[in-house]
Design brief:
single chain; alpha+beta; Arc Repressor Mutant, subunit A; three-stranded antiparallel β-sheet; 5 helices; 3 strands; 58% helix; elongated
Length: 96
């Protein structure tokens, strides 16, 4: 049991962060607005959770302008994908 618990990552304990990583692991990238709509969260809530994942090195972003409007795309880093998959496998082992 202790072995399984050590593989749980505190960065993913919040449901919003879990949702962000779930969306980013199955997509190459997602823009901020789409992520906000998908998770049904406020700007401030999404921004704070994205910042937290960025600090862990799990998410990266790229800013650009599309039709003169700012557009930010988020991507799960390799480190983030590996940590997320490890976290999900630990949950699966707990449930068995």
């Amino acid at each position: 049991m202790k072995e399984v618990l050590k593989d749980l990552d505190k960065a993913f304990e919040n449901r919003i962060r879990l949702g962000i990583m779930s969306a980013l692991v199955v997509n190459d990238y997602i823009d901020y607005t789409s992520l906000k709509e998908l998770l049904d969260v406020t700007d401030g809530n999404l921004a704070s959770h994205l910042k937290s994942l960025e600090k862990c090195g799990y998410v990266s972003y790229e800013k650009a302008f599309v039709d003169r409007k700012p557009n930010t795309n988020y991507t799960a880093t390799e480190k983030g994908k590996e940590a997320f998959i490890k976290h999900i496998k630990a949950i699966e082992q707990l449930l068995q």
